[in-house]
Design a protein that fits this description.
two-stranded antiparallel sheet; alpha+beta; Alpha-Beta Plaits; 8 strands; globular; 35% strand
Length: 112
């Protein structure tokens, strides 16, 4: 059960970022599940740029990039997300991480 006032952890990385040979976004999601977080979603951006590259990466066929932006969103309590962030912090070489308040309206399973 997640309280009404939760937190959203949003992680912005590159598609080609890896940790020990595994795509970093996959490793983060597996770790989130192992640590018992409520859930995680990975989204692949269509266009973007970051701190290390002022080049715009895009999905347009004329300029197809192999390093598209990836956004990972996790929602849980602030305490759990802070602990999770400590676990993954040193595994992210480049990227942006934000933590913000989230009003949770419902969180339910299809299981009856």
């Amino acid at each position: 059960m997640i309280p009404e006032q939760g937190c959203l952890l949003r992680i912005f990385i590159g598609e080609t970022d890896k940790y020990k040979g595994t795509p970093l976004y996959e490793w983060i999601v597996v770790k989130a599940r192992e640590t018992g977080l409520a859930g995680a979603t990975v989204m692949r951006g269509m266009m973007g740029f970051g701190a290390n590259s002022r080049v715009i990466h895009t999905f347009k066929i004329q300029r197809l990039s192999e390093d598209m932006p990836i956004v990972i969103e996790l929602v849980d309590t602030r305490e759990k997300l802070e602990q999770f962030l400590e676990l993954i912090d040193d595994k992210i070489d480049a990227g942006l991480v934000t933590l913000e308040k989230a009003e949770i309206r419902f969180y339910r399973s299809r299981k009856k």
